[in-house]
Write a structure and sequence with these properties.
215 residues, mainly alpha, two-stranded antiparallel sheet, elongated, binds zinc ion
Length: 215
């Protein structure tokens, strides 16, 4: 028969692999590490800073579980589908802080509107996209099967793409493929989304040849 007790061997929890913290303090930890079972270390030791991503992921997961508990009718995790994830995302919109102009608004497509307007505040696409990524990982870390992951559902991907395209038009910004963090001062470099790749290569090679002596 199958081995029973390895539900998440393919995706070991990230919380257990913390080489960044251990590398500096391993000499102090190693003597006692054998006495502490791996399951309790996270709770008993409380590492100094578990990384912002891990914290955020845990908060997001708690929020989602809370949402499931308050759902009418109540939802359990295994029952959760992509449709419920979409419901959750729309629910989050009421807490959004990004002005998304309606198509009928005179400021539709203007990155810097000259006056206030009654258009709704929503969750920015970048926030939703990152959120789904974290929840998708958290789902599998909590034992969910990857093939059943509602955060990876096609409907969710399509929804996010739709939101991205509409918000790009409504806000007059372009979401390029660049994997940068969205910066808030969107008036500085809207017109040049991406510098010339050749120029970057030249600049970097020049920089590397000159900066070797500086440090
Ligand atoms: Zn508006």
């Amino acid at each position: 028969m199958d081995i029973v007790s390895e539900p998440i061997t393919k995706n070991p929890p990230i919380t257990f692999e913390t080489p960044i913290i251990n590398s500096s303090t391993s000499s102090m930890i190693t003597p006692s590490s054998s006495a502490i079972s791996p399951a309790t270390t996270a709770d008993s030791i409380s590492p100094p800073t578990p990384s912002r991503y891990e914290n955020q992921k845990r908060r997001d997961w708690n929020t989602f579980c809370q949402y499931l508990r308050n759902h009418r009718p109540p939802l359990s995790l295994p029952m959760c589908s992509g449709a419920h994830v979409l419901e959750f995302l729309r629910y989050l919109d009421q807490f959004g802080k990004t002005k998304i102009h309606n198509q009928t608004c005179p400021f539709f497509g203007l990155p810097n509107p000259p006056a206030p307007c009654p258009c709704p505040l929503r969750q920015a696409w970048g926030s939703l996209d990152a959120l789904i990524g974290r929840l998708r990982a958290a789902y599998e870390e909590h034992g969910g099967r990857p093939e059943a992951n509602p955060f990876g559902a096609r409907a969710v991907r399509l929804y996010l793409r739709e939101v991205r395209d509409f918000q790009a038009k409504a806000r007059g910004v372009s979401y390029e493929k660049k994997r940068k963090r969205p910066n808030n001062n969107n008036n500085s470099n809207n017109n040049k989304p991406k510098p010339n790749m050749n120029a970057m290569l030249i600049a970097s090679s020049a920089a590397s040849s000159t900066t070797t002596t500086t440090s």
